[in-house]
Amino acid sequence: MFSPHGPSLRELAIQALSSVERGYDLLAPKFDHTPFRTPDGVLDATADALRPLGPFGRGLDVCCGTGAGLRVIDSLCRERITGVDFSAGMLAQARRAHPAAACVRADARALPFAEAFDLAVSFGALGHFLPADRPALFAGVYRALRPGGLFAFPLGAPPPITSGWYWALLGFDLAMRVRNAVWRPPFVMYYRTCPLGAVRDDLTAAGFTVTTVPLTPLGRRADGAPRYRLVLARKPTAETGRP
Known about the structure:
This protein has helices at 9-16, 20-27, 40-50, 68-76, 88-97, 134-144, 164-182, 196-206, and strands at 59-62, 81-85, 102-105, 117-121, 145-156, 209-214, 228-234. By secondary structure, the protein is α/β, with parallel strands linked by helices. A seven-stranded mixed beta sheet has the order 3-2-1-4-5-7-6, with helices on both faces.
């Protein structure tokens, strides 16, 4: 699963027993050599799906990590791009990879922006937010967007119960729940807490108009459903109250 340049088992164990912020500070120098980084195929498919909806002005990558998603918005936005994350270590890596981008340290549940961006994206971050945290996250993104702005992120389809991945993800989430029940500080990272229906409801409650499009280049499951969908949450325009 890991390249020779990735973290050792000891390093991963130390990370897992840390807080989310401290864990990612420790992992940051080797993060891009782990399977936790969003694959380039997902990034490219997202960029291709968003391109016909642009061009955009200013772009924001929410929970930008080491900056993989900054490459996406840099290809779509005509003005300056910004990445926000609460891990100083991850932001340091993002600055090195994208020196022209603004990198801001902040909690995504309290974004320090108001009507500043035309496009916001996020990759692989929803599992770090408990369902009770999503309203604050989505409300902050809503405030950060200009009227008519778009919030987009890919969401994978849940694997079928007959799949080995189903049981692997279930086992991971159960292990994390046990870990967080007996160890402090908690490390919030779950794979099964953000189903599309619940995410859509929370986005709608925040004020967005929500649609999805299949990311067809990423293939389909055996039942014909797309493996990934791109969630498109549009902030209504000020004049009409409509997207």
